[in-house]
Amino acid sequence: MTATVFLQAAEMFAAAVEQVRDDQWDQPGLGEWDVRALVGHTLRAVTTVSSYLAQPAPDSVECGSAGEYFVRVRTLPAADDRAVADRGHQAGRDLGPDPLATVRAGIARAGDRLAQLEDADPVLPTVAGGMRLSDYLPTRTFELLAHSNDLAAATGAALVVPPEVAESALQTAVAAMARLGDGHALFLHLLGRPGGEHRPMFG
Description:
This protein has 8 helices and 4 strands, in the order αββααααββααα.
């Protein structure tokens, strides 16, 4: 089920990329990224799945949930703002002359690897440590929804969000916030109740 939702999120992202006009790729995307870098960064939510599946499985699970993943990665050197920004710029350059074709090819590779799995829930070597595929994929669904929204805001693309994708991303966000002690504040915020001020976790 998590693989199905992840691929739905990937197709949602591709549909937004299809709407990017030729004259928009160098326009502002998010922060210091132009649209090309934003799309390249977002595609990494897909290509890391293929990359991790191609590597030997770790011996143990070190990160047991999507919520724990986001708590762990925010403390890593690779999560430094400068490092993230630089990877985004490089990912944008890696899209090549036909960004949409590169996006589509990346999604197809991930889909093929998932379809060919002999072990339905292998352990992957993620930046947060060994994780079950079923726990890692929701983190990618979250990223795809977050940055597809950014892309739509930057380009005016119409974004159609499958309910399953929204549900998965919300579950991941709530789990991460709860681990940081802000779960109750987030709950109050969703209800529109007093005391619902919380620190944004995701930039």
